[in-house]
Design a protein that fits this description.
Layout: E1 7-11, H1 15-27, E2 34-37, H2 40-48, E3 59-63, H3 72-81, E4 90-94, H4 99-108, E5 112-115, H5 120-136
Parallel strand pairs: 1-2, 1-3, 3-4, 4-5
Length: 143
Amino acid sequence: MNAVPVTILLIEDDPGHARLIEKNVRRAGVANQITHKLDGTTALEHLFGRGEHSKSDPLLVLLDLNLPDMSGTDILARIKADPLLRRTPVVVLTTTDDRTEIQRCYDLGCNVYITKPVEYEGFASAIRQLGLFLTVMQVPEQD
């Protein structure tokens, strides 16, 4: 069986952070297609209203929690509640380092939680580590 390339859905409202995430994911050797959405509404439309695209397409979600139109935790909850998307790996990338919020994300089913340091080098390092994670990650088979 041939592996189907994993598409990365980046949900991030800050264009600078989005460029930094993509640059460092590429620097880590990940060549997967990255689809970028600036807000929760368009991200949910992409995930749940994909037209001719099958919801079973392999997918990884990189999710910021602080979006202009809704909370990333709401998006995480929607993904994990959907029978076709619940196995989709979700990596939370956010500035929020509140222990309660981190625990809530893990309780909702996020796979990895990365706090974005305000300082560039720390953030770049975290994204490079994420890139290395993506190079070895196996997406579970869909039911």
